[in-house]
Amino acid sequence: MNPVPWPAAGRPRERLAAAGPASLSDAELVALMLRTGVAGRPAADVANELLARFGHVSRLLVAPLPEVAAVPGVGAVPAARFAAALELSRRSLREEMLARDSLASPTAVRGYLRLRMQHLGHEVFWGVFLDAQNRVIAAEELFRGTLTQTSVYPREVVKQALAHNAAGVILAHNHPSGVAEPSLQDQALTRSLAESLALVDVRVLDHFIVAPGAFLSFAERGLL
């Protein structure tokens, strides 16, 4: 990727103050997080190298700290800023998710799960437990590893739903392969969980599959 010069209209910090952060490019926002470059390498060049190396902003934010810090011109402190920015985004979405009706405003739930799961190299299975007004009570990882119908235990999901006194649950798991399409096994597992939870009057409201750059809702696909 060739270095992208800043627009003649002004430097990123000035443009952010005048027009807001949405007016800046990815490289400009990254450069602001870096604050300064190093001798012979302005922050703009370092920002462009980071984006070229990691490919996407989301991959940069979830990359291991030593890997980011090792890029010439970055170092430990700016790398920590990227990690802090990601965690602040997660916490912001979690607060929004906990404060709203998850079905009337599903964006926060989806956004939070994407930030938690989309770039993991291993599979995880989450449950988002809801009260009778569809407000989030808790969101937690229930299983990790290779997820199959035999490794995700319905009784454990039921146990957690009862522990939270939940009326509903949104299930979610990730596909590190990058393909968000549900397998026959995914569909069978969802049916098994829905049947087990129905025995204790807990509804499965949706099941999300999260993958890098992709997201699928069982409810929207008509699979529930």
Q: What's the CATH C level of the largest domain?
A: Alpha Beta
The helix count comes to 10
Rg from alpha-carbon coordinates: 21 Å
The CATH topology of the largest domain, please? Cytidine Deaminase, domain 2
Note down, in words, how this protein is organized.
The protein is of the alpha+beta class and 224 residues long. The protein folds into two domains: 12-89, DNA polymerase, domain 1; 101-221, Cytidine Deaminase, domain 2 (3-Layer(aba) Sandwich). The chain is built from ten helices and five strands, in the order αααααααββαβαββα. It has helices spanning 12-19, 26-34, 43-54, 57-62, 65-69, 76-99, 107-117, 154-163, 184-198, 218-221, and strands at residues 124-130, 136-144, 168-174, 203-211, 214-217. The protein has a five-stranded mixed sheet, with helices on both faces. Strand 3, helix 9 and strand 4 (203-211) form a beta-alpha-beta unit. The N and C termini lie far apart (44 Å).
